Amino acid sequence: MITDILVIGSGISGLTYAIKIGEQNPELQLTIISKNNLLETNTRYAQGGIAVVSNFQKDSYDKHIEDTLIAGAGKCDKEVVKFVVEEGHERLQELMDWGTQFDKKEKGLHLTKEGGHSENRIVHHKDSTGLEIQESLIRKIKTFPNISLLENHTLVDLITDHHTGSLNKRCYGAYVIQNLEQEIIRISSKITVLSTGGAGQLFSHTTNPLNATGDGLGAAYRAKVLMKALPFVQFHPTALYPKIEGNTFLISEAVRGEGGILINSKGERFMLKYDPNAELAPRDIVARSIANEILKSDQEYVYLDCRNINKQDFINQFPTILKNCKKIDLNPLIDLIPVIPAAHYFCGGIQVNPFGETILKGLYAIGECSYTGLHGANRLASNSLLESLVFSHRAALNSLKEINGNLPSKEFYENVPEWNGAQYIYDEKISATEKLKKNLQKIMASKVGIFKTSEGLIKAESELKEIFLKTKDIYNENKLTLEVCELRNMVSVAYLMIKQSQELKENIGVFYNHDNVA
Ligand SMILES: Cc1cc2nc3c(=O)[nH]c(=O)nc-3n(C[C@H](O)[C@H](O)[C@H](O)COP(=O)(O)OP(=O)(O)OC[C@H]3O[C@@H](n4cnc5c(N)ncnc54)[C@H](O)[C@@H]3O)c2cc1C
User: Fold this and answer.
1) Residues 75 and 206 in one domain
2) Ligand 1 centroid to 239 CA: how many Å?
């Protein structure tokens, strides 16, 4: 199959990029693939909203820039922070023009405040902002006759000079597994965009959906593309402890903002011991404090007590949280909510320039799978959806320039080789992948999670090596399946994260190694 532009991933990044190209260029053929249905993305789970300066009487770009730089602990790229904040306003307007609804107040938008923000600047749709964005983008994308949507199609590997035998240092599309048929097809393309989201599934507890296995990162690594800042994983302090449908559901920070307090297994409020801002301390501090309390107790969670929040306010503000708690017979208005920190957001990723370009020509990375320099060592709340909007726009503009430039011939793309891999499945070995995945998650959670030690990182590396060897064995001897594909990526990303963590000698932002403490 041949397409002009291949977009891998259907979250806010991939869909925004595709709309931008599709709207202005009906002559170009775009293909979007997504691992599951178009809706199942990190985007759809976003609750809080998008940080955008909108109230210019009280707020300013300078204040938002300053807040972002403080959160990033001196590791942000200042130029990137500046243009992302300044371009956000226009990008938000486009999103609304495409049909996304945000809550309104009097004449303007209703703005909330989250940790680390000096002003109210979070635009939102109740507590289900991501779902509203995702659904409106899907409605919009379906109006373009020149955009093909392939659900249940999973990226296996990027096509590079290694496959074509050329020396262009370009990407020529991707090999993609059809999840249902379990067949691998070749999609060659002039431009390829990775918008595959995060990799929360590397850890036992995560707020990310099951498909967030770091596939874009794994494929980019195999294509020798640079990866940066992987150890900076933001853990959300309060995810619901029992999993619902395999996922850990997020209990938004806003609940603590409204008065929810944290209580340990002995029934004691503990956050004041750790920080004068108590439950409203920065996320990394709250997450570390909870992890510490859990380590000291014989219980795998602490409690969030919301009983002092006005009941009607809770019902009005947090309908999604209420609904999800009820799924497990919890009523937050009268019961304590068991919570645990969970891997939430990857500040690092595939290194890109201010236009989303990687070092491989024709390959872009946007959204959570990329490292742009915006977040540095810690992301300011609600800056990630903003980053996706701004970089999708910039990458789209740049792609259009590139596609009209000097590219290999049509025949070259037609002759890109098909996938060349094993064709047989030995069930016994394939069934081992689930166990290997669980082991990997345990290693990462216990040794590469919120607290690390230098010895733990060495152990993690050697334990991961065993999983790597078994995965390699399965990969080499069997026809590739979706599960093996995911495991292979998880192993690669875990390995890179461990190696980069070993090199970090200072505790900064969300990164914490006990042995780095002076
Ligand atoms: C619970 C939760 C709450 C959040 N709240 C906020 C918030 O309030 N504000 C904020 O700014 N950010 C928030 N975030 C972060 C934000 O939602 C994400 O960073 C952002 O949505 C990422 O968008 P994306 O388009 O880059 O990736 P995603 O939305 O994750 O989309 C990834 C896409 O890639 C596809 N994909 C993955 N692997 C493959 C593959 N191998 N082949 C084909 N397709 C693949 C997936 O199927 C999916 O379509 C939250 C995240 C979570 C999990």
Assistant:
1) yes
2) 17
The verdict on pTM exceeding 0.85 is yes
Residues 470, 467: Cα–Cα separation, whole Å:
5
Evaluate whether 342 touches 189 at the Cβ level (below 8 Å).
Answer: no
Ligand 1 cavity residues, CB under 6 Å:
8-14, 33-36, 40-43, 45-50, 129-130, 154-155, 195-197, 207-208, 211, 215, 250, 345, 367-368, 382-385, 388
In the reported structure, the alpha carbon of residue 455 is separated from the centroid of ligand 1 by a whole-number distance in angstroms of 32
Q: Hey, which residues are catalytic here? A: 283
Q: Is residue 70 part of a domain?
A: yes
Residues 219 and 368 in one domain: yes
Q: Smallest Cα–Cα separation from 133: which of 88, 94, 81, 90? A: 94
The Cα–Cα gap between 226 and 370 comes to: 10
Phi, psi angle pair for 474, to nearest 5°: -65, -45
Task: Kindly state whether residue 236 falls inside one of the protein's structural domains.
Answer: no
CA of 368 to the centre of ligand 1 (A): 7
Mutate to test the pocket of ligand 1, among 15, 141, 196 (most ligand atoms within 8 A of CB): 196
Please give the Cα distance from 271 to 274 (Å, whole number).
5
Are 186 and 324 in a shared domain? no
Give, in order, the Cα–Cα distances in Å from 25 to each of 21, 125, 143: 6, 31, 14
Q: Which residues of 331-355 are buried (b: 16+ CB within 10 A; e: fewer)?
A: ebeeeebbbbbbbbbbbbbbbbebb
- Answer for the pair 355, 17: CB distance below 8 angstroms, yes or no: no
The whole domain housing 218 covers: 2-231+347-414
Query: H/E/C letters for each residue in 34-93?
Result: CCCCCCCCCHHHCCCCEECCCCCCCCCHHHHHHHHHHHCCCCCCHHHHHHHHHHHHHHHH
Do residues 365 and 383 lie in contact, with contact meaning Cβ atoms separated by under 8 Å?
A: no
Q: Look at ligand 1, atom 8, and give the residue with the nearest C-alpha.
A: 48
Q: What is the CATH number of the domain that holds 464?
A: 1.20.58.100
Last residue of some domain: 387, 414, 441? Answer: 414
> Could you tell which of 7, 41, 213, 489 is best to mutate to test the pocket of ligand 1, judged by most ligand atoms within 8 Å of the CB?
41
Reported as a single tens digit per residue, the pLDDT across 213-225 is: 999 999 999 999 9
Beta strands 302-305 and 111-112: pairing type? unpaired
Q: Is residue 324 part of a domain?
A: yes
Task: Let me know how many helices (H) and strands (E) the chain has, helices first.
Answer: 17, 19
> What's the confidence (pLDDT) of residue 242?
75
**196: burial class by Cβ within 10 Å (0-12, 13-18, 19+)?**
buried
Instruction: Summarize pLDDT for 40-97 with one digit per residue, the tens.
Output: 999 999 988 999 999 999 999 999 999 999 999 999 999 999 999 999 999 999 999 9
- The answer to whether residue 281 is domain-embedded is yes
Tell me, in angstroms, the distance from the centre of ligand 1 to residue 298's CA: 33
Q: How far apart are CA 173 and CA 363, in angstroms?
A: 9
